[in-house]
């Protein structure tokens, strides 16, 4: 039963690779039949679990309620999407984001729930570090707007360079990962090589200091919650 449950959970999650939009699209009928099959298996597994569990215990378990609600909403969304498709009305399968619920809430996924709850308990404790990082990002973005916003600089595509505050925040946020380095600094560097000091300071503060601090806080708190969580808390 455990192997079969994991197989159909994996199959259900894998349907996202073949549903629109997808790299390897399959006909809607094929993906919908497979999804209905998976949901029927989940419903059968839940029914079997209800047969061997006390009635009061079964209905007090929020995991069972979550699975039933997810099955009902998935079937409803699939039916609505199919009807709209018949009338050539474009819509979105919003229930696909609920598929990880099956992976987390089945009784066989105790260790996954343990990891998930450790992550949930860790989030409040890393909020302060995240807020400090966002404050630093916003301040550097404001400085960039004052430094470059009025100099009429342009990117390689001919677009205004660092003239919109929200776009600056996004560009510098991506720069934390160094994914757009050094492209994001080249228009300023071409204007004056001294402007490279601004981006060097930004990378040192946010990439090397804040990201290292953020990773350390996440790791230590996650390990602490994973270690102190009793085994029974996973149920």
UniProtKB/TrEMBL annotation:
Subcellular location: Membrane
Highest rank taxon of the organism: Eukaryota
Keyword Iron-sulfur attached: no
Signal sequence, start to end: 1-16
InterPro entries: Ion_trans_dom (IPR005821)
One of the record's GO cellular component terms: membrane
The protein's name in its UniProt record: TPC2 protein
Underlying gene: Tpcn2_1
């Amino acid at each position: 039963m455990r192997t079969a449950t994991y197989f159909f959970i994996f199959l259900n999650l894998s349907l996202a690779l073949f549903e629109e939009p997808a790299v390897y699209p399959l006909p809607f009928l094929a993906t919908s039949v497979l999804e209905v099959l998976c949901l029927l298996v989940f419903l059968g597994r839940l029914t079997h679990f209800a047969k061997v569990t006390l009635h009061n215990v079964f209905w007090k378990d929020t995991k069972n309620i979550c699975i039933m609600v997810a099955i009902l909403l998935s079937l409803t969304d699939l039916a609505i999407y199919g009807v709209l498709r018949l009338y050539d009305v474009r819509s979105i399968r919003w229930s696909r984001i609920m598929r990880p619920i099956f992976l987390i809430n089945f009784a066989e996924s105790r260790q996954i729930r343990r990891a998930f709850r450790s992550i949930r308990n860790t989030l409040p404790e890393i909020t302060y570090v995240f807020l400090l990082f966002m404050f630093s990002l916003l301040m550097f973005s404001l400085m960039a707007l004052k430094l470059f916003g009025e100099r009429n600089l342009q990117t390689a595509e001919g677009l205004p360079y660092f003239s919109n505050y929200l776009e600056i925040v996004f560009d510098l946020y991506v720069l934390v990962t160094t994914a757009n380095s050094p492209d994001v600094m080249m228009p300023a560097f071409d204007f004056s090589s001294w402007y490279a000091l601004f981006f060097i300071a930004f990378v040192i503060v946010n990439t090397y200091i804040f990201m290292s601090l953020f990773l350390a806080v996440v790791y230590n708190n996650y390990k602490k919650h994973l270690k102190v969580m009793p085994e029974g808390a996973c149920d």
